[in-house]
Structures are given as C-alpha cells and as structure tokens.
Structure prediction request, 197 residues.
Amino acid sequence: MLSFADSPWAVGALFALAFTESSFFLVPPDVLLIAMALGNPARALWFALVCSAGSVLGGCFGYAIGAFAKEKVVDPLVRWRHWEPYFERARAMYERYDVWAVGIAGFTPIPYKIFTIAGGIARLDFLRFLAASAASRSARFFLVAGTIYLFGPQVKGFIDRYFNMLTVLFAVLLVGGFALMHWGWKRKSQTEASTHE
Prediction:
C-alpha cells in the first residue's frame, strides 16, 4: 500500500483503501494517508477529505451488508472467522449507546467495520448512523493530516525518523482495540454467568 504514495494513482488508492477498510478489509488507511501527507503537506487536507469520503461511503456499504445480506454474507463469515463475540458486543454497545457506538469506533482503533455491519443488522437510523460516521472518521483523518499541514517540516522530520515505529504503534493500538473488546466481553460473560448462579 505504501508503494502507492508516490504513484499517479495515490488518491484513488487512498479512497479505495478507506472504502474497503470500513466494510471488510483489514488494513487501515491511516498509514497511506500519513505517507501521502508527508510527501505533499500542502495537499494534506485534501487527502484527509478523500480518505474521509471513502471511509464514510465504505461504512454505508458495510451498513448495507448488515441490513440486506446478513444471512447470505455476514452469518457465514462470522461463523468462519469466529467473530460471534465481536458482533454480540457491538450489538450490546448499540443497545446502550445507540449511534454513539459507531462514533467511538470511527475515531478509535476499535474495528470500525464491525460496527458498520452491526449497525445495518441492528437497523440503526441511517441518517444518524451516517452523521456519526462522518463526524468520527473526519475527525480522525483531519487530525492526522491537519497536524502535518500545520507543522509541516517539524512534524515531517519526526514522522520520517519514527515512521516505522509509529506504524507499529498504530498496529498495536488496532490489535489492542480487538483485545480490549474481547477482554471486556469475556469479563462481562463471566459476570453474567456468576449472577445467574
């Protein structure tokens, strides 16, 4: 993906990556966004807009998958990947926080795609889902790109020097988001089991 950063197809690749990551792909677009913004800080905000648009549209696609293809697509995939606890937790978070749950997932390393598909399954109000997705994804990408745009050479030197470490850190945060959710679900299940006893 990073090889696209200096190619003529960089903007299209960024849009496609942001779109697919929001509905079924695993690689987050942040790494490509950072690389492109560092290469051309003057266009960093444009890249953030492209990334946000792709991500929100991908989230809508994820919502559609959950709403209209649950039995044919989602259920077999969930069984195959053993994702039942993740979707159950997403459902519980929607019951408790409504669309705020997708807003949280959209801004943090929590897997956003789980919440877009689960949002469709839960049949959340689509306009509110769309608003929460747009707000959280835009905030995330514009924060990254805006920092590079504002501080340019200073932050560019820092990110250039520590780019590999930062990408590893982001990956750790992403995996940590999965692990935290899993730990929370496991603890909740144990609490509920002990309560029933």
About this structure: The chain has a mean pLDDT of 80. Helices lie at 10-21, 30-39, 44-68, 70-81, 84-97, 100-107, 112-121, 126-196.
